[in-house]
Write a structure and sequence with these properties.
Elements lengths: L2 H13 L9 E6 L1 H15 L11 E6 L2 E7 L2
């Protein structure tokens, strides 16, 4: 999963009128490598002036009212 793929997926959901979006939460369970890479990529996108990245086991973002949670596979 990459930032671009996340935006593409959420955009498709937002544009689909038959999907009820109020209160929608998506959860992605990612491998350790995918999880850390996406965690850092999203950190860099939102914290351009901070250089200290500390990985999290779980993190979430909200895009156009849709909550997206990311958890690391055990």
């Amino acid at each position: 999963m990459t930032y671009e793929k996340l935006i593409e997926t959420i955009s498709a959901i937002i544009q689909e009128p038959n999907i009820y979006k109020n209160g929608l939460t998506l959860t992605y369970s990612l491998t350790n490598q995918e999880h850390t890479a996406l965690n850092e990529e999203l950190f860099r996108q939102t914290n351009q002036y901070s250089k200290t990245f500390t990985p999290n086991d779980e993190f979430e973002v909200e895009i156009d009212g849709i909550l997206v949670k990311f958890v690391k596979l055990p």
